[in-house]
Amino acid sequence: MSKIVILSAQLAAPHILGDLLAKVAAQDQILAEWIKGLDTFPIIEECVQNALARLGKIEGIKQCQDILDYYGKAYGGKLAGALKTDALPNGLGVKINEKGAIEFVADEYQSEWKSEIKRLQKLFTDAFQAEATTAILQILGYEVEVESTTTEKGELIFNLEGVKQ
Question: CB neighbours of 143 closer than 8 A, spacing ≥ 6?
């Protein structure tokens, strides 16, 4: 039976930004107090949108807003966005739950979709981590540039460069 399901919560919320912020806060007590009051949910939302947009610019990946099950029925839940490829025409959805954790949503009905779902999850996770790191560095007053490159093995990697203002 075909069914769209939440695959996993790969990026749990306070840990996404919390771990990075904790390392930064260890360097500065005043900054540590300010960070404790920081609402990370809007930052997570922005990083998700930026990661989806970044991946949508890669040849063969299309950024969209909805996903379908095997029979063409649209997912009824709220998604932050989705990614589709020729190998996964029904898409991989990305949602942010009420706790701020990121969850992936897809229909794994066809066995050949599973490997593409895993590939897109990894690409999204890497892109999101680059965006989250960028956001934190910008909060700390850095000007940051993110570049994506493809290795000889065909893997996509993200390089960040930050300069203190």
Answer: 162, 163, 165
pTM of the model: 0.82
What confidence tier does 48 reach under pLDDT thresholds 50, 70, 90? very high
Q: DSSP secondary structure string, 63-131? A: EES--B-TTSPBP-S--SEEEEETTEEEEEEEEE-TTS-EEEEEE--SHHHHHHHHHHHHHHHHHHHHH
Q: Enter the tokens of residue 139.
A: 């909060």
CA distance 6 to 40: 23
Q: Is 90 exposed, middle or buried (0-12, 13-18, 19+ CB in 10 A)?
A: buried
